[in-house]
Input
Amino acid sequence: MNIDKLIDDVIRREGGYVDHPADRGGKTIWGITEAVARANGYTGLMKAMPRATAVAIYRSEYAIKPGFAAVAEVYPDLGAKLFDVGVNMGPAWPSRWLQEWLNALNQGGKLGADLVEDGKLGAKTLAALKALKAWRGAEGEQRLLTAIRGDQTARYKAIVRGSASQRAFAYGWLARAAA
Output
């Protein structure tokens, strides 16, 4: 996983300043919501937030802190997928899904003890991921990608079923899930 490339891809996809009336994230620039920008110390106008600030936030809050960069050291495509989903709906969702699937795939404890499904990717989650890789190799990554895409799609469906205003984003979300 090349973090710089992932960040560039997200910024290109998200675009510049947006204040869509149906977007629950409110004002965004480079895909960074105002709430996330403020939580990371940015105090200026959202329209004026430098790209470099967005890059720093993406690197810290969506790659390093949630552990997606560490996942990418084991399974690069999975780390990239978790990063992208985390950007779109927050890092806790894909983190929890990964833990749920690692528990489901641990062969009744043969690959290790079940993980606490708390959305925090630490040493135990990485050990479980490495155990899956030792057991299934590259195929394990493909299975996890399929599972995460399924969870992502189901989450989008729940969002649009719960709020008609979010249907404005459904088509784009499905494209994102397929990637």
The longest strand covers residues 28-29.
